[in-house]
């Protein structure tokens, strides 16, 4: 399933509503629609990039909330490094 939304160079397209989410079975359907209607732009890539960045940010926040004073103490004493603590906490999520 491929979810996308479109924008038009002309501001209006009679076959596709602008800024409405559409669900297609395959990417080829979208490719055909873009070939037929040359004024359409597929804007869904920007949503995918935004969602991936938000997921990474929320993952880091979840890891940071689990850092305890004992982790900081072990880093100050030179027993471990930040990478190992992040790896351990990432596995526990």
Task: Give a short summary of the structure.
The chain is of the alpha+beta class and 93 residues long.
Strand tally: 4
Approximately how much beta-strand content do the residues carry? Answer: 5-15%
- The succession of helices and strands, N to C, reads EEEHEHHH
Largest β-sheet summary: 2 strands, antiparallel
The proportion of residues forming helix, as a percent range, comes to 40-55%
Average pLDDT reading: 87
> What is the helix tally?
4
Secondary structure elements and pairings:
Blueprint: E1 2-4, E2 6-8, E3 22-24, H1 27-36, E4 40-42, H2 44-65, H3 69-76, H4 82-92
Antiparallel strand pairs: 1-3, 2-4
Describe the model.
55% of the residues lie in helices and 13% in strands. The longest helix is centred in the middle third of the chain and has 22 residues, at 44-65. It has a domain at 1-42. The protein has 93 residues and is an alpha+beta fold. The two termini are 28 Å apart. The mean pLDDT is 87. The protein is rod-shaped and about 65 Å long. It has a two-stranded antiparallel ribbon. It has a two-stranded antiparallel sheet with strand order 2-4.
Key terms:
single chain; 93 residues; alpha+beta; two-stranded antiparallel sheet; two-stranded antiparallel ribbon; 4 strands; rod-shaped
């Amino acid at each position: 399933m491929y979810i996308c939304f479109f924008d038009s160079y002309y501001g209006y397209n009679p076959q596709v509503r602008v800024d409405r989410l559409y669900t297609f079975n395959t990417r080829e359907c979208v490719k055909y629609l873009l070939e037929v209607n040359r004024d359409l732009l597929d804007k869904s890539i920007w949503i995918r990039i935004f969602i991936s960045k938000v997921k990474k940010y929320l993952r880091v926040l979840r890891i940071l909330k689990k850092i305890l004073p004992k982790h900081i103490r072990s880093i100050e004493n030179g027993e471990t490094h930040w990478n190992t603590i992040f790896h351990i906490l990432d596995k526990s999520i």
